[in-house]
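I would like you to help me understand the sequence and structure tokens below and explain how sequence relates to structure.
___
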Amino acid sequence: MMVNKRIFLLVAAICLSIGWSAARPPAEGMWLPLLLKQLNEAEMQQQGFKLTAEDIYSINRSSLKDAVVSFGGFCTGEIVSAEGLLLTNHHCGYGQVQSHSSVENDYLTDGFWAMNRQQELPNPGLTATFIVRMEDVTSQILTGIPAAATEAVREATILGNMARVRQEATAGTHYDAVIKPFFYGNEFYMYITETFRDVRLVGAPPSAIGKFGGDTDNWMWPRHTGDFALFRVYAGADNKPADYSPDNKPYQPKHHLPISLKGVQQGDFTLVFGFPGRTNEYLTSHAIQEIYEVSNPAKISIRETKLRLLDEDMKASDAVRIQYAAKYASIANAWKKWIGENRGLHKANTIEKKKELEREFAQWVNADASRKQQYGNLLAEFGQNYQQLDGITIARDYVNEAAMGVELIRHAVDYIRLVELVETKGAASEINTLADRLEKSAPGFYKNYNAPTDKKVFAALLDQYYQNIDPKFHPEAFSSTARQKYQGNFSKYADDVYSKSVFVSEDRLKAAMADLRAGKTQAFKSDPGFLLASSILSHYRSEILPVYNQVNDNLNLLYRTYMTALREMQQDRKFYPDANSTLRVAYGKVADYEPMDGVKYKHYTTLEGVMEKAAMGGVEDYVIPARLRELYEQKDFGPYGVDGQMPVCFIASNHTTGGNSGSPVINGNGQLIGINFDRNWEGTMSDIAYNPDQVRNISVDVRYLLFIIDKFAGAGHLVQEMTLVTDDTSGLPHADNRKEAPKKKTRKQKKKEAAVK
């Protein structure tokens, strides 16, 4: 797909502002399960939640949390059967599907379905982590900090306390413990976890379904994507975590989510339970202005260039397409998100709203002498620190996006430490350990690496780096080599690097590593790719990172103080902590929205929309498998369709972010109704500021995935594992009134009923 530059014009095309209120709208927030009883239960029940906070999170009995996992540490998944069957997004399992694919067995294109347990595919390194319990450990973590401690002393004390508390909490168990700061280090919570290490691929639809719409529809609504995949968690004979073994058994969970066939209606309560990655809801106007005006535009431009080059080569070769499919999707995902984020920030007039809050804050501070003494300089100090980042942030962005966007450079950086150890005659054990790790990872790198493609990326991205960054922030190699030797011609620079570097092929690197193990470093020290990577890293470490880290240390202290002050100023407001990859609850309602004047989107899509998009023609992201078209034309939707239509996706007002991909969307009865997989483009700014009129999370309707599994793939045995319900009975394991959906009627029964009618 060619990247459309006109998309940038949309950032400035819409100007709709909303009011800023100290009271957050009901749908906003990523809430700690431990605190739902005191903060959220009453409001959730008013909105249609039929259960209790104890039903969501409990350490005394099974609860919804026991069916939710951190999938691989980067997504969320949910258990949907008593035999460890796990649902997540297709894009979350994309890397695993890719790893099992080849030109001969192209599971990315054709899909994959295990028709029995023996066909389920292991995935080394993939994990599923359950939360056993969480605990407020603020007092234990902040104990022993001297009153006048510097930030360094405070941090060292906290790290020591964390290690002690973790050790005490997990001693004698197979559990792990994670402790993370909240509200910039004002509070600390500990999560006790249980991680399963044998997670096998069970099923994935073809990309034409699981990725329908591709980059064209990414971050967009209306959406028609069957973004789901199935895995299975395996355990040892004792039902505890175990390394992969053919003797392992399917995990028997404390709870699995029943699946509702009732569907969704406008205004229905929705709960998203998962592991959101990172948000920054309490940033000042200074930070948002830097993101909006400086950082996002630069990163968008760099990634647009890289996407264009990858797209050209992927279209020209199936082998390259398979090699770069997951990487392309990852690059495009953030690229388009940043565009939408800027659009949303502009649309909500966010910078000005933040400034208004800061003016209110200043008035509140100045109204009291003690507050003025404590907080009087806070906003000015924010401004001074962000000013120190002028030029630093953009230089850092170009290192991370342009320099490290070149695979050869990023790969070469991994070897710098090893070469240093050999040259300085470091400890043999450390050298061998690092060398072993690098040699073990090399085959995986080269399996998905194409040097000619990377060479094009090298020439284009480094030219952008060279042209767009103040020369005072250039690495030494830019002046000594790029400018003097190649007169700023990065195509010639690329010719030299990719004709000589050991990093362009696995065989060359193996030979260089053999010399290195023998104490010879010349192959690396004379390598033009290694020299460039070393120059970039050295400059980054000496000129950019120290300033960046120092300012951010200062800012972290300022934000910690700012959060204390805001909570003191707005005592009637319920504050939720920024996302940090810990288990959270977000709740809202199924809701339509108006993205711009004269346009209104309804809350759901159907299979008819898939056909309509395909009929547009000329868009490769809108390919339809023949079997899916056949089922549509015959209206053969089984028990999953409604009034001759097949629901596909729906939207709601839940506050989500990256990491929530794959999260279960649960109705008021604790039943699964969908799988969260995206946000609307206008709503991507919710990582920074929530706009209730625009923010919508996008989910695949659970009825569509059942239809695909059963009718499209013929894998009905997987549906048989699940608990399907058609009524409003409780979805909790301790409820004894749960009913299964009626079994399919035979043709004879249907004829008999028709005759009676």
